[in-house]
Structure formats: C-alpha cells, structure tokens
Known about the structure:
single chain, mainly alpha, 0% strand, globular
Amino acid sequence: MGILAWIVVGLIAGWLASIVMRGGGSGILGDIILGIVGALVGGFLASSVFGIPDAVSGLNLTSIIVAFLGAVIVIAIVRALTRGRAVV
C-alpha cells in the first residue's frame, strides 16, 4: 500500500475513531497518526487472531474498518494509561 493510501486511510479511520470515542479531537495530523497506528494494530490483530492475511491492503472499505477498529483500541489504551494525569 502506498504512502498516500496510508495517509488517506489513516485520516478517515482516525477521524471516525475520534468521533466514536468522543474525544476532544486530535486535529488532522493527530487523526492521521492515530489512524495509521490503528491500521498497524488492527492489521496485526486481524492477521494473528482471525487469520486474515493482508487485512489493510489499500484504499478500500475493509482497510478503513480494520484501521478504525485498531484506532478505537489505541484510543482506549491511551485513555486507560493516562487516566488521572494532570494536563500542564
């Protein structure tokens, strides 16, 4: 998958995940990074748990869904780890 496809999938997945998880919004760059990390996490889980090879394979609905689910997991983990910390 090309870098442009990763960025577009990351933007869409990160944006959707931040809406569903009711976050304050991470901005465009934050949503892209969140979506790309989510795609990596979702792709890893899809291949190792469900046996789906190459789950994130381009700019398609399957890739966006896998990246979205991975981004939701990443947001949940980050919130669990940073709960109760004061923002400076």
